Amino acid sequence: MQIARIGHAQLSTYCMQGEAMPSYLRCAILPPLVSIFGLPMSDAPLHYRSATELAGLLGRREISAVEVMKAFLARIEEVNPKLNAIVSMLPVSQALAMAEAADQKLRAGDAAGILHGLPTAVKDLNDVAGLPTSRGSRAFANRAAASKDAKFVAKLREAGALLIGKTNTPELGVGTLTFNEVFGVTRNPWDLSKHGGGSSGAGAAVAAGLVPLADGSDSGGSIRYPASFCNIVGLRTTPGRVPFEALGDGWTPHAVVGPMARSSQDAALLLAAMSGPVSDGPITLDSDPRQFLKLADVDLSKVRIAWSKDADGLPISPEIRAAYAEARATLAGLGCQIDDVELDLSTADRAWEVIEMFGFFTDSPDEVRTNPELFRPDYVRNIKQGSTTDPVELAFGIRERTKIFRRTAALLQDYDLFITPTTPVTAPPAEVEWVGEIDGTVFDRYFLWQRLACRITMTGHPVLSMPGGFTATGMPFGLQVVGPMRGEHNLLSFGAAIESATGWINRRPTGV
Known about the structure:
There is one protein chain. By secondary structure, this protein is of the alpha/beta class. Among the domains are: about 5-45, no CATH class; about 45-225, Amidase signature (AS) domain (Amidase signature (AS) enzymes), CATH 3.90.1300.10. About 40% of the residues lie in helices and about 15% in strands. α7 links the parallel β2 (about 120-125) and β3 (about 160-165).
């Protein structure tokens, strides 16, 4: 049969170059091969096309930026009231005018950036010129629109992204669940009774097709937890990879900004746009962001994985343990060489807490001292704890972070990757402020259930949260994949290979 002679390369050509594909091939062959190889679903609605595919179509003028913008605005209108993931937006007329200007630029033959014409939203902790930055707090809810972009946001705009709105966040980024008194809860597109994760509420927006790409920031899992809960990709970058304007300590490697997307390839595209040095960024890396525009082919049979069942003894729900074991069997079946390894993270919890709380204090705005009643009690408590930091404790945290970094670097001399579960549970009920118990262990503060992420933060290495499959109840969960320092290209290349081989990334949310 003719169908049997159609190969993977030819399908890639049809999908990526916009060539006409025979109807029998679209109907009979493409859907299963999408699952097997992770190819773009060219028959998918525009809001679920990959950012990479959309960028190609826009660049070749096979579709207009206005058409793309209308598709995403319609999706936002339809779904965002259920999710509450995007909390402020440009007027529709202004968004469409930006899209028309993007089309005019291409018609004039002007050079276009790598994100040209792609609608994008930014976490509501970061400034976007023309949009307010509430930080999810009553203290800032009535602020005027920002007059200029944050550094990495300016890079997105230079790359041609159309910045149309802000994504929800818990107040001042406190915790890995998104809720606040200004905008409310961001819900999960897989199950609207569940949280979408935080502090980067963009996970739900990206998963549900409200925007193709979004940013997140992460010191204790704020990119990784929503990625895991929503079946998308989130990358905690090497410190300095993306310009980050910390309020108090511009030298810290603790909190970073990174991409969130529906695939590793799309995350790489966004990383290429948002990364790069800035003159006033003391630790930004002076490397060419264009390296991320082409990922490497990965021979999975040569990938050596150090496999951690629980990041050195953390409680994990039985549901996640079972799904995580299935993910291991899948990776082994694909040829990956996997060894059971537990990295010594015994001091990571104490070290992370002292550094995190001291960071809250150094970054705290004046308003929290003049009007503490306007802020979430957890946030005020963090600042008070940080303000009394014992220098001996702070020295302990800094020393142990260095030791953990070096142990991780040594481990990654023998292995390509170190993998743990991203989260200890699937998305929790939307009514809770944090997960209070896991497998018999009770937590009395919001960050204690986040330790799978917090411990990995202390390694200092880049880490990819990527889809790892689904639990018995049909909810997604993620693999937390740690790679060598400054090794985001390798991480994303591995992620793309696994996505192509498993098809986990291609399943769409069932709740919207």
